[in-house]
Design goal:
190 residues; mainly alpha
């Protein structure tokens, strides 16, 4: 032990510690500071990206709700921002569980709407053919007034099917918008 202490004293006096160890410590401190700054910069960039996603989603939800309130009709056939948010790694289930659950419910509404729209021809074509045949006059031409009158029931079915899906979207959009607003307020932005 005494030999080690003598060796350290000798190295100190000769300047080896000051010329080798001190620069090494300075390099380690510089490396730590650079990593710390890079980490802070990355976290700021992630926060800014989350803010952009939340602002885009809020804008889409506002637009969808305003359009529905004004015209009683759906605005989009697919939620583009919802898909972007859903596929983003910046919003995860651990930290944003309520947001993602509400988003998935909102997106299910669009799936329901698209399924309803795609099923309309299969659902109505046989009925329309029967109505068309019932509208035929005995001499061979068709009574369009009678056809339109009989078709009203089919048109009402289509409208009910689409409106049910749109209502599902709107009912899911309102709580999703509230959650987006809550997250933006929590992040200190409006």
């Amino acid at each position: 032990m005494e030999g080690t202490i003598d060796w350290i004293k000798a190295m100190w006096k000769s300047g080896v510690i000051g010329s080798v160890i001190m620069p090494l410590i300075a390099v380690l401190i510089g490396w730590w500071l650079a990593n710390w700054r890079a980490d802070r910069k990355e976290k700021r960039a992630e926060k800014n990206q989350r803010l952009k996603l939340l602002h885009m989603l809020r804008h889409e939800l506002d637009t969808v709700l305003k359009h529905y309130d004004a015209k009683g009709k759906y605005y989009l056939r697919n939620t583009l921002t919802g898909q972007i948010v859903n596929n983003s790694s910046l919003l995860n289930v651990e930290d944003h569980k309520d947001l993602l659950e509400r988003l998935w419910e909102y997106m299910r509404g669009y799936e329901s709407l698209n399924t309803a729209i795609e099923s309309i021809p299969a659902m109505t074509t046989p009925k329309r053919k029967v109505i068309f045949d019932m509208s035929k006059r005995w001499w061979g031409d068709y009574d369009l007034i009678k056809y339109n009158k009989l078709s009203k029931h089919v048109d009402d079915e289509i409208e009910i099917t689409i409106n049910d899906s749109v209502k599902y979207i709107i009912d899911a959009a309102r709580p999703l918008l509230e959650e987006v607003e809550r997250l933006l307020n929590k992040m200190g932005y409006k």
